[in-house]
Specification:
The chain is an alpha/beta fold. The protein folds into two domains: about 240 residues, Aspartate Aminotransferase, domain 2; about 130 residues, Alpha-Beta Complex (Aspartate Aminotransferase, domain 1), CATH 3.90.1150. Helix content is about 35%, strand content about 15%. It contains 14 helices and twelve strands. Strand 5, helix 7 and strand 6 form a beta-alpha-beta unit. Helix 1 packs antiparallel against helix 2, helix 2 runs parallel beside helix 9 and helix 3 runs parallel beside helix 4. The radius of gyration is 21 Å and the shape is globular. About 50% of the residues are buried. It binds pyridoxal-5'-phosphate. The site of pyridoxal-5'-phosphate has 16 residues, from helix 3 and helix 4.
């Protein structure tokens, strides 16, 4: 299809065409490691499935289409996608990262790549001038996560892109929390978009997979080389599940956002709730930036119950019945988590507290169920 498709059409048709063999409308699961050649080197574009696989290629075209990018790349997980980005760099190179980021990202940076000589600065990015102070001649990348996990801070992607361009460094955005339905970082000036497709993109809590999208051909070549040379690729079945998930991304995200607004407002007026973090509130410190760069505010919410301690938070979470206590987010079902002891346990307590991840904090991934059932569940759990 040559025509540029609108988002709600691109999720279904972007980069897709009926299968060449029999016209299958859904991309088949090409569960094969290798491809017949008629003579050495004479093949139909596929040689070995670490390098290319037709199901994976369909997914790479799909994600590129919905992120408004030229090239998509797939990985075995979100962290494998980040691992590939870090392998673009060499010992002595410096990276400036959001300070309240996904715990696994922090662990990858500090426990793996610091050992290979990369240097990381974890910086509060709400003031872009503050970020500029950390740029020097060794700086190669600015890594942004927005909205941040779990504090729901919003970082101004356009301003970070301006800074990155001025200093000649790359800008990568972890777009996992927003999904391209809510925000398209390449259009805002980013060089690399990264997804844990495990979350909203695949959307059904049935697959672990990572994605990158870039515009630059040279960057795509380097990343494809790393993808093949390091080999952290997803299998055809997981690629298929993710591709299938993307077809309903726009419908799911619309409902996630509607339910998110209902739950956030319910929690805000509750007498037993101390604080609610959600970028849709006018009182949110970065609400205006969120309005400028996002199409809606999504269903990720964090809150602190009154009295705010570890025990209160655990008691509430344990009482929930419709919300499931689990790691992860972005699926059709509502999940609740306790960042201090779950997703963010790999960040030292003092570091955690500095960015607001206190022991009483509860994080909700609001699903697409009937919002009244979700409210009634929270009502009985909060008591
Ligand atoms: C889950 C997550 C990751 C890691 O992705 P995996 O698919 O679990 O490897 C990275 N960033 C964010 C924001 C996440 O939520």
């Amino acid at each position: 299809m040559k025509k540029k498709l609108r988002f709600n059409t691109a999720t279904i048709h972007g980069g897709q065409s009926p299968d060449l063999a029999y016209g299958a409308v859904m991309t088949p699961i090409y569960q094969t490691s290798t491809y017949a050649q008629s003579s050495p080197g004479d093949h139909k574009g596929f040689e070995y499935s670490r390098t290319h696989n037709p199901t994976r290629s369909a997914l790479e075209r799909s994600i590129a289409s919905i992120e408004n990018g030229h090239h998509g790349l797939t990985y075995a997980s979100g962290l494998a996608a980040m691992d590939a980005v870090m392998k673009l760099f060499s010992p002595g190179d410096e990276i400036i990262s959001t300070h309240d980021l996904y715990g696994g990202s922090y662990r990858l940076f500090t426990k793996i790549f610091e050992n290979y000589g990369l240097k990381f600065h974890f910086v509060d990015m709400q003031d872009p001038n503050h970020v500029a102070e950390y740029v020097n001649e060794n700086t190669k990348l600015i890594w942004v996560e927005t909205p941040t996990n779990p504090m729901m801070n919003i970082i101004d992607i356009r301003r970070m892109a301006t800074l990155a361009k001025a200093k000649n460094v790359l800008l990568a955005v972890d777009n996992t929390f927003a999904s391209p339905y809510l925000q398209q970082p390449l259009d805002l000036g980013a060089d690399i978009v990264m997804h844990s497709a495990t979350k909203f993109i695949a959307g059904h809590s049935d697959v672990v997979l990572g994605l990158l999208v870039v515009n630059d051909d040279e960057l795509q070549e380097k990343l494809a080389f790393i993808q093949n040379a390091s080999g952290a690729i997803p299998g055809p079945m997981d690629s298929f599940l993710t591709l299938r998930g993307i077809k309903t991304l726009h419908v799911r995200m619309q409902r996630h956002s509607e339910n998110g607004a209902v739950i956030a407002n319910y929690l805000k007026q509750h007498s037993k709730i101390e604080k609610v973090y959600w970028p849709g509130f006018e009182s949110h410190p970065n609400h205006q930036i969120a309005k400028n760069q996002m199409n809606d505010f999504g269903g990720m919410i964090s809150f602190i119950p009154k009295g705010g301690g570890h025990a209160t938070a655990i008691k509430i979470i344990e009482k929930m019945e419709v919300f499931t206590l689990a790691e992860s987010l972005g699926g059709v079902e509502s999940l609740a988590g306790h960042p201090a002891s779950m997703t963010h346990a790999s960040i030292p307590r003092e570091e955690r507290k500095k960015s607001g991840v206190v022991d009483g904090l509860i994080r909700l991934s609001v699903g697409i169920e009937d919002s009244q059932d979700l409210i009634e569940d929270l009502e009985q759990a909060i008591g």
